[in-house]
Predict the structure.
Amino acid sequence: MNLLKDITIGQYVPGNSIIHRMDPRVKIALVFILMIQLFITESWVSLGSYFALLLLVTLLSGISPGYILKGLRPIIFLVLITLIFNFFFSKGDAIWQQRIFSITISITQQGVQSGLRMAARLILLVYSTSLLTLTTSPIQLTDAIENILTPFKVIGIPAHELAMMMSIALRFIPVLIEETDKIFKAQKSRGARFGRGNIIQKAKSLLPILVPLFVHAFKHAEDLAVAMESRCYRGGERRTRLKQLRVTGLDCWATLLCGLVLVGAAWWDFYGKL
Amino acid sequence: MKRSNNGLKRIIQISLLASVATLLMLIQIPYPGAGWLKFDISNIPVLIGGCALGPIAGLLIVIIKLFLFGIIRSSPGELMGLPMNLIANGTLVLVTSYIYRRVKTQENALFSLFVGVIVSTLIMIPANYFVLPLYLKFFAPNIPIPPPSQMLTMLFTVVIPFNLIAGFLNISLTFIVYKRVSAFIRPDAQINLQSGKDVRARSRG
């Protein structure tokens, strides 16, 4: 299916840089804390220091800027909409006015400021999350999430099962995409028509794809269950891992650096202009 | 032994259904008139899972679907929509599967799907009413927030029709698909892809 061709799953770029070697839990926590700061702050100095920090991380990780730019592509439209909305519909002191027929269109100073700030926030937000997913493999991510969720076992959240379900689901998406493609071609060769007629006919034409897709999914579930059962899988208890998550000196230094940027920016926001 | 086998299989079936749901969610059609609302048919696996494996399984499928979708498409505009999506889809699957699993007949299946869509549409009215101003305030702080009358007009002309159309699209497809695939999800189902059909499924027509 053409629609499925552009979907890339997991943008992880393998590497052995400092950033790659950091503990995924620490990375998630730092990105999360910095993102909160990104949304609280109003000043350009904080946004600028955040950007500088991200640039440093990009340099250290050795990831080519092309990947980052590719990650930013889906939000161009959103950024443009945000800018236009803020520029033209904000109230405040007008810096540019134009009468078209009976409507006055004006751009306000406040609108320009808030628009640019919002656009910068959006871009930085996507920049930081894509840095996280570019340098952390999906397996590491789910491992870290399992680890972060473990304390919640007390209130009945099955951390291990949740993490395992997520990694199984993630792992099967590419497989199912390929199978959907095959089913699509197979049904087409039997004369099925897709995407024609009114909405009801279009919905009906999905059935010859959906039913085999579900049957395939259940078949995979069955095979996987047998495979895991025969390898004596018995839940998360007493499971050992090949790669243990470990916080090292590297993570401490990274936390220290991020903390410095955070405190510095907050200090500037409160006391301002030195 | 038997017991643990079923537990494991249930977990894996939930994962695979979540995988299908994520896949279907990636194919989105924007709703004309409101770019932030998007149609998708990802509720089919959610409802099938809910009806066959129970309400909690359905809710888990929704949560995993949204989480994976967030990882794959991490654009902030869509991330904001995920909590709303969780409320809408979560209500739909909980209500539907709870009603359906009491009496498993075709009439009750139709009834439960119908009630599910109505309840989730009703829930989305207050949810949208409170969240939309927040969203506006966040993305464009200097824009005056529309007065309640304007908000209500928008709710009735855009949001409610969208939820109803999206809901009925999903449940009608679910109703047709569920009958054909439900035989494969039962714990004793033997799936043989070569012959194309489950032996027991065929005997049931």
Q: What stands out?
A: Residues 1-136+244-274 of chain A form one domain. The first strand of chain A starts at residue 94 and ends at 100. Residues 179 and 216 of chain A are 8 Å apart (CA to CA). Chain A touches chain B through 65 residues (CB under 8 Å).
